[in-house]
Design a protein that fits this description.
heterodimer; A: mainly alpha; B: mainly alpha; 13 helices
Chain lengths: 291, 288
Amino acid sequence: MSVYKHDYRAYTGEVTPLWTRVNVLARYAFSEAWSSKITVTLFTLSLAPIIVFLILIYVANNPIARALITRGNPQAFAIDAKFFLKVIEMQSWCALVVTAWIAPRLISFDLSDNALPILLSHPISRVGYISGKFIALFSSLSAITWFPCLLLFAYQGYSSAEHWTAANLPIAFGLLVGSLIWIAFLSLLGLALSSWVKWRVVATGVIFAAVFVPAGVGGIVTAIMRTKWGFLLNLPFIMSLLWQRLLGAPEFMRSGQSIPTTAIVIMLGLACLLCIAMLNARIRAREVVRG
Amino acid sequence: MMNAKAEAFKDDLAQQPWSLYLTQTRRLTVIELRRNLVSWRASWIYFLAFVPTLIIFIHLLFDSHPQSTMSDDSNVLAGIVQLYYIRLGIFFGCLGIFSRLIRGEMIERSLHFYLLAPVRREILLLSKFIAGSVSALLLFVTAIVADFVLMYAAYGPAGRAYILSATGLAQLEAYVAIAVLACLGYGAVFLLLSMMFRNPTPAAMLVLGWEAINPVMPSLLQKLSVASYLRHMMPVSIAGEGIFALLTVETEPVSGWVAALGLLMLTAVVLIYSCYRIRKLEIRYTTE
């Protein structure tokens, strides 16, 4: 059919607010992430440690069960900052596994199918696109990190005979802030690496390697150069140090070997900036045609 | 009856076109080697292999090397081989190299070209395994030899004397043997995993977790691990720290050649099973 009329006009009707457009992407990303049975399985497995910790809190607060199991040792089953440090560490490892599975599903398909130009031709910016994916990943990770951790804290406060909650509020704060830092970093890292690796299969491995290999390299730097600063490359180690300080748990490093919190924060900030730069370079409305 | 079967098997073997198989293997291996070593995509494996070498080189250039620290550096080198190369470098390197051999071709939708060619599938699989092994060995063995030389070269004449001494050469030989066996063992396992699963990484992470907790497992279960065989071959032993040191189950010391034979047998069994699986391999590109 021939088109003769060329006097097109811009749409003048009501425009949806910018922030709601991000929600559309987040909604679709969320459904894409959760469409896999493996995501559901991983999520369920990630909550299994929470049930174990819940039982431990019950035992710690039940005088009969406690007397039977601990046989008068008051230090056994102590629900304190050290206990919640174990909780946050366990859930954070689970979050890494879930990120390695979900993040490539959110980005790799769009890139490998050359769908980005089509998506970005809609009234949505690159920042909006990344924000939508980030929200989907961040909210999925929230469900296995800070949310169950705070539920455990609340349950301990409810079960404890003493005024436990008021005296231990810094633990709740540490759980929330520590988890938010970790999952925000993981979301950025997962999206950035997935945007650079075309194949979802490879992206899953690269996310794990990006956490473990620098840790090994950091270990080599520490051992060879005889310096503590190599630990800064060891992400699991510096995060454990940060959580331990946020929760107020006892220091596990020797005084001379400890890393200052400022250095940890700067390192995490630099890593986040690198991830943003990677996303900026890769998330563009272009199509690569080879052949 | 048994003799007749054996004779038939011998005849069958003799009638196989071995020279053709050899030519096909050589051609396929060269194609794969080029892909594995001479491409921009392979640069990350160079990074994995040579990053410790770079750090040791910086150490050689800028740090002082009093004679008293030579034994410390021997322990550091053992730690690099045991904790970095075996657990991370060779592990992730082989995961990348060997997963790509079959699964990568499926994702790129090019495996059917090989399967349509008049080449036995076992030849295809073994050629790819040889190419992957040669690539991994070339990179990681070179890196470990360079690490060893650079680590002791910094000590001047004493270091050079140690490198050329019987102790030094035995240590280097053990590290090279460990690297070779690690590449073959992990390579065979990851090649099989890449044929069994659409995404072999989760399974590989389970293998990584298994290898990490293996020292605290009973001695029978320790035999189902690549790292446990290699631990017996380490010239300098690195003990576990913290809770792992308490839980570690010390198995009976095994001589180097028994450990090597055990790992080679594990590799052979995995490869035979892979050959069996590739005969039944079907490609559905739509599900990739």
